[in-house]
Amino acid sequence: MPQPLPELPVTFLSQGHQIVAMHHKSRGERLVILCHGFMSSKAECRRLFVETGRAFAAEGLDVLRFDFYGSGDSAGDFGDSLISLYIANLCDAIAWARGLGFARIAVLGHSMGGATAILTLAETPVDALVTWSAVPDMQATFQSYISNLDAISAQAEEYIHEGWVIRRSFWEDAIRYDVRAALGALTMPKLCVQGMADAPVFIQGFDSFRDIVQPPADFMELPAASHTYALPAHRHQAIRQSLIWLKRNL
């Protein structure tokens, strides 16, 4: 029976804060950085990113999955998180990877992690991008989940959503960013994956990506898959097809 590949906990600093990560070690040539979604962590729902890291490493790709500031094991409180901080965290993760000498780097982001990846790579490009159910529009996405969000954010400093504190500062920071415009500026190879049983705002956003993206770009629909790829078959399909694409494009 083959020995499992090493998985090493690592930390790096971002904006003076400790960011906690896990490095799935493989051949040390190509690295994929995984960016988790909003209200999640480096393991992702149902350990989606643990499974992804192990599957990719077994096929020769190193993987770094990390907790954004205020999430998982990283420093800070969730209520103090900002999209601008997430972007800084990803920039510093890319710098960490380059410091280790990886020749090729890709970023894979799920949901808000996908939007963060798009926004970051518009200014700090890498060699390839994969998004899973990326947030396509900050304002439309939050309004689809929180009714009367504009009124709430104007009247209160914070809002409790599914037990998490979302502060007005997060909302005001997030709506400054245009995910579609950033995606339209990217020139590296791109793969956009979307579950077709997701909320309408994500499916409509995925369709709108097709109209503005520059080649090379590929789009993959997963029929009946939810936003978090809840069923094992959907998780396996997203992982396997993304792995095949990355081995060809990274």
Structure description:
The chain has nine helices and ten strands. By secondary structure, it is an alpha/beta fold. The chain has a single domain, classed as 3-Layer(aba) Sandwich (Rossmann fold). Helix 3 links the parallel strand 5 and strand 6. The model has no long low-confidence stretch (mean pLDDT 94).
Fill in the keyword field for this structure:
single chain; 250 residues; alpha/beta; Rossmann fold; 8-stranded mixed sheet; two-stranded antiparallel sheet; 39% helix
The residue-averaged pLDDT reads: 94
Counting DSSP E segments of at least 2 residues, the number of strands comes to: 10
User: How does the overall form come out from the CA principal axes?
Assistant: globular
In terms of quaternary structure, the protein is: single chain
For the termini, the CA-CA separation is 29 Å
Estimated helix fraction: 25-40%
Give me the side-by-side strand order of the main sheet. 1-2-4-3-5-6-9-10
- Tell me the radius of gyration: 17 Å
Q: What is the CATH superfamily classification? A: Alpha/Beta hydrolase fold, catalytic domain
